[in-house]
Write a structure and sequence with these properties.
Layout: H1 2-6, E1 21-26, E2 31-36, H2 38-50, E3 64-67, E4 74-75, E5 80-86, H3 91-101, E6 102-104
Antiparallel strand pairs: 1-5, 2-4, 2-6, 3-5
Helix pairs in contact: 2-3
Length: 105
């Protein structure tokens, strides 16, 4: 449900919306986005709960990352380049993975 809300969907269409939050990721400097490492983004989403290590573990279907930029885009220092969409679990670890995935030059 977090991703539905993040994309502007109507949560009133769902009987039990899952609680979710968005936490911005800010560009550390100005320049052109040279790289968004898919592995780093994937690890960030995993620790938010979108993946599992064992089959018996639950997957949270509503968490993810909403990207505001793509490779080649220009960003300003402090501009939010992405938002972690989460339920509160693993946010700081996900932030670390995601921030490591961005290269601005």
């Amino acid at each position: 449900m977090c991703m539905v809300r993040a994309q502007g969907g109507d949560l009133n269409q769902f009987p039990q919306a899952l609680g979710c939050e968005e936490s911005p990721l800010f560009s550390p400097n100005a320049g052109q986005v040279e790289r968004l490492d898919a592995l780093g983004i994937g690890k960030a989403v995993f620790v938010l709960g979108a993946g599992r290590k064992h089959a018996r573990e639950d997957v949270h279907p509503g968490v993810g990352i909403k990207l505001n930029v793509k490779e080649g885009d220009t960003v300003e220092i402090g501009e939010p380049w992405a938002f972690l969409v989460h339920s509160g679990k693993g946010v700081e670890e996900a932030r670390s993975f995601a921030e490591g995935a961005l290269k601005v030059g």
